[in-house]
Write a structure and sequence with these properties.
Elements (H helix, E strand, L loop, with lengths): L4 H15 L1 H14 L6 E9 L6 H9 L4 E8 L4 E7 L7 E7 L6 H11 L4 H4 L15 H10 L1 H9 L3 E7 L9 H10 L12 E3 L4 E5 L4 E5 L4 E5 L2 E7 L13 H7 L7
Parallel strand pairs: 1-4, 5-10
Antiparallel strand pairs: 1-5, 2-3, 3-4, 6-7, 7-10, 8-9
Helix pairs in contact: 1-2, 6-7
The protein binds nickel (II) ion.
The site of nickel (II) ion has 7 residues, from strand 1 and strand 5.
Length: 268
């Protein structure tokens, strides 16, 4: 199925804001204050499990078919995650950041829960580009969600929300009338949006060529097999990039910062 890049991102955004209403509010706020007709996304992030049916490369294939190339590799030891980022030759297209949970590093009990979730996914479905915003392909009990949550916040988030954009990220460099990331954060706090303070409100700095901040995830209702519950959904991120010695803006990610950004979906 052929989908052009902009159409795919429109579908991903529409799906994302259904459970992340604060992102839509912030998007409108930044557009109105900046006066920009459109905001540029720095990157869009995805989560998955490293099992054969759902591994990172299966999600990446959709972007590779649209002209994206793998650029950076990342490892998050404590969170048991491997990640890669992808870039398009047109740098106004968002970078793609895909992480995958190393399921084999979880307890036997958690592995069984996840393998049962994933086993019925049809590969033909994975190969359609709308798989990227298809949500969960399984039913799960709240108790199993809680078991995953006690071991891996990331595993629990995937169990509840499945395949979709985990966050969109505003490129602060492209925002008119904002000098820097701090100015964006100041406005968001003034408007009572809740920022992720893990590792400091701003992760990274000019010294590592990338500064990032994010909201704490909204909460949205999930229907488990047995009960419904309000749990963290998705968040919105803001990134400011700095020039490297060669005069080009840094296009990679900083693992120490991304590690704390993952915590934006923690329930606390
Ligand atoms: Ni991000």
């Amino acid at each position: 199925m052929h989908t052009d890049i902009d159409t795919l991102f429109t579908h991903l955004w529409d799906n994302y804001v259904t459970i992340t209403p604060s992102a839509e509010k912030i998007h409108s706020l930044l557009k109105s204050v900046s006066g920009d007709a459109e905001l540029i996304n720095d990157h869009v992030a995805f989560r998955t499990f490293n099992l054969d049916q759902t591994k990172l490369s299966k999600l990446a294939a959709h972007f590779e078919s649209l002209g994206y190339e793998a650029k950076g590799d990342y490892n998050f030891e404590a969170k048991k995650l491997t990640a890669k980022h992808y870039q398009h030759t047109d740098l106004t297209k968002p970078k793609i950041f895909i992480s995958e949970l190393r399921v084999e590093e979880l307890s036997a009990q958690a592995q069984t829960i996840i393998k049962n979730m994933v086993k019925s996914i049809d590969q033909a479905v994975v190969e359609q580009s709308n798989f990227l915003y298809s949500g969960p392909h399984w039913n799960i009990n709240k108790a199993d969600y809680d078991t995953l949550l006690s071991e891996s916040e990331y595993a629990a988030w995937m169990a509840a929300w499945g395949f979709r954009a985990n966050h969109f990220t505003v490129s602060v460099n492209h925002l008119s009338r904002f000098d820097n990331l701090q100015a964006v954060n100041n406005l968001l706090k003034q408007e009572a949006f809740l920022l992720n303070t893990a590792g400091g409100e701003i992760k990274g700095s000019k010294a590592v060529h990338l500064a990032q901040s994010s909201t704490m995830a909204d909460k949205a209702s999930v229907k488990f097999n047995d009960v419904s519950a309000d749990i963290p959904s998705c968040f919105y991120e803001f990134a400011e990039r700095f020039e490297m010695a060669d005069g080009n803006l840094y296009q990679g990610f900083v693992a120490a910062s991304a590690d704390k950004i993952f915590e934006s979906t923690n329930a606390k």
